[in-house]
Specification:
Blueprint (H helix, E strand, L loop, with lengths): L12 H8 L10 H24 L12 H11 L8 H12 L4 H36 L8 H9 L20
Helix pairs in contact: 3-6, 4-5, 5-6
C-alpha cells in the first residue's frame, strides 16, 4: 500500500477491517443448528441422569463408585431407620414449637432433641456395622468414609435417594 498511487477513493474503515480480520474458525451456525445441538445435549443429559438413577457404575460420580459403596447403599436401603423420618418429624415438631402453649413447646423441643440424639446414635451404630460387614465381604477395599456415606444415605427420605434404591426393605441377599 505504501508505493501505490492514489487513483482510487480512500477505503472505508469497515472494508479495511474486513480485509484484516482473521477468518472464523467455525462457521456461524443458524438457529436450526443451535436448536438441534441443544436438543441433543438435553437428551444426553436425560440419558446420563437415568443411568445415574439406575446405578450404572459408569454413570456414577467417584463418591458412589465401587462394590463397597454399592453394598453400603443396598444395606441401608434394605432397612428402616429413624434418620429417614427425621425431616418430617422435625417439620411437625417445629409446627408444635410455634404453639402459644409453653408446655407444648417444651415437649416438642424435648422430643426434637431426643429424635436428633437417637438419629446420631443410630448413625454411629450403623457406621460400625457397615465397616465390619465391608471388611468381611471386601477385605481389600478401604473403609474410609463408608460410615458417613451410609449414615448420610440413611437420613434421606427413601424416595429421594439417588441413585434409587436397588433392593426392597427387609431383603437380605444383596
Amino acid at each position: 500500500m505504501e508505493n501505490q498511487k492514489k487513483g482510487r477513493p480512500t477505503p472505508k474503515r469497515k472494508e479495511v477491517e474486513k480485509q484484516r480480520a482473521i477468518p472464523r474458525l467455525a462457521p456461524a451456525s443458524d438457529k436450526a443448528t443451535k436448536k438441534l445441538l441443544k436438543e441433543e445435549a438435553r437428551k444426553g443429559r436425560i440419558a446420563q441422569r437415568a443411568a445415574f438413577m439406575r446405578g450404572d457404575e459408569s454413570a456414577l460420580p467417584p463418591r458412589d463408585r465401587g462394590p463397597a459403596r454399592r453394598f453400603v447403599r443396598n444395606y441401608i436401603d434394605s432397612r428402616r431407620s429413624i434418620g429417614e423420618f427425621f425431616l418430617p418429624i422435625v417439620m411437625v415438631l417445629l409446627f408444635f414449637g410455634l404453639s402459644p402453649n409453653p408446655q407444648v413447646r417444651v415437649v416438642a423441643t424435648i422430643i426434637l432433641y431426643a429424635v436428633a440424639l437417637y438419629s446420631v446414635v443410630e448413625g454411629f451404630v450403623i457406621g460400625r456395622k457397615i465397616k465390619s460387614k465391608v471388611r468381611e465381604r471386601f477385605p481389600d477395599e478401604p473403609t474410609k468414609g463408608l460410615a458417613v456415606y451410609g449414615w448420610v444415605r440413611s437420613t434421606q427420605i427413601r424416595r429421594l435417594r439417588a441413585p434409587l434404591p436397588q433392593v426392597k426393605r427387609g431383603e437380605k441377599n444383596f
